[in-house]
Amino acid sequence: MERTTPKVDTKNMTVRVSTALVFGVFFFSLLWLGDRPWAPWTYLALMALATVMGVRELTLMARVRGFNPSLAAGSLVGCGILAHFFLATGSHDPLPLWLVFAAGALVIHFGALFFDPKLEEALPSQAITWLGALYLGFGLGFQQKLFMLQGTLPKTGSRLILALFIITWFGDTAAYFVGSYFGRRKLAPKVSPKKSWEGAFGNLGGNLLGAFLMQATVCPEWSLVDVVSLGLLLGIAGQLGDLVESTWKRSAGVKDSCVGVSIPGHGGILDRVDSLVFAAPVLYAYVHFVHGFN
Question: Has the keyword rRNA processing been applied to this entry (predicted)?
């Protein structure tokens, strides 16, 4: 096959890197102070903000297709799920999920009877409202749960969150450059024409590199099996998350999830958390079942 010319947008890359550095300094500062009493509350506020922004973007994408999901209801239920993860510690669960779901059903379904002017689209609209709440609530809720974990090393939760970010971001970066320079075979042309099998394998290589870096720096308790397993598991989960969000954008006919307000060089909040939303539950499941963290 004929080799394609690399397509790397250097101008956008400069903006992208600059924005990433600003956010990186903020997040890494928070992780460094992860053992302070106020740190979990600060992280909760960040996750709540990301939940509302993500539900907003999914709501706007759905409205492009004529549906009318509720931003308010989706945000409330999503933040309720997030609050469950924040409050649940061991056997203590003051806000059980069944209560969040029961209250969410009242808010989403009965609220629509009074406030939804397009009840003819009630089925898809309410389904999308639930989708936004569950997708952001669970995906970011597991990040909150990881942040609050305590182990034998100080700031265990901060270490795990840093590992989650680095492994995922190394994979995303490697996929971009490998796919741009060597991508020939389309991975999912109906979903994302720019993604290639070469980029996917480059992604996994970046994930493994990030996992080895985390073992050498912040997670010294990881064995070689942990490094390889987490690199591959988070890499696969992250790429699935990216493809899932790409199908939503494709169905709505939009290029970025932001639909108006964007993060410079990065698109919308869903474009930034799509991989993390799938990878965070995988990381939590691994450290829970393999290492016994609760």
Answer: no
Give mean pLDDT, residues 112-127: 91
The mean-pLDDT minimum among 55-64, 239-248, 254-263 falls in: 254-263
Q: Which residues pair with 263 in a beta bridge?
A: 267
- pLDDT surpasses 50 at 2: no
Q: Of the candidates 170, 172, 160, which has an alpha carbon nearest to the alpha carbon of residue 200?
A: 172
In the predicted structure, residue 264 carries a pLDDT above the cut 60: no
CB 149 within 8 A of CB 91: no
Is the pLDDT assigned to residue 220 strictly greater than 60?
A: yes
Instruction: Please tell me the distance from the alpha carbon of residue 276 to that of residue 161, in angstroms, as a whole number.
Output: 10
pLDDT > 50? residue 3: no
The one-letter amino acid code at 119 reads L
HSE (CB half, 13 Å, CA atoms) of 69? Answer: 27
Through-space distance between the first and last CA atoms of the chain, rounded to whole angstroms: 51
Residue pair 256/271 in contact (Cβ under 8 Å)? The answer is yes
pLDDT digits (tens, 9 = 90+) for 75-86: 999 999 999 999
Q: Is the pTM of this model over 0.70?
A: yes
How many of the other CB atoms lie within 10 Å of CB of 88?
18
The contacts of residue 55 (CB under 8 Å, 6+ apart) are: 71, 74, 75, 78, 132, 133, 136
Cβ partners under 8 Å of residue 183, min gap 6: 4, 194, 195, 196, 197, 198, 199
Q: What are phi and psi of 257, to 5 degrees?
A: -75, -15
Q: Which DSSP category does 67 fall into?
A: -
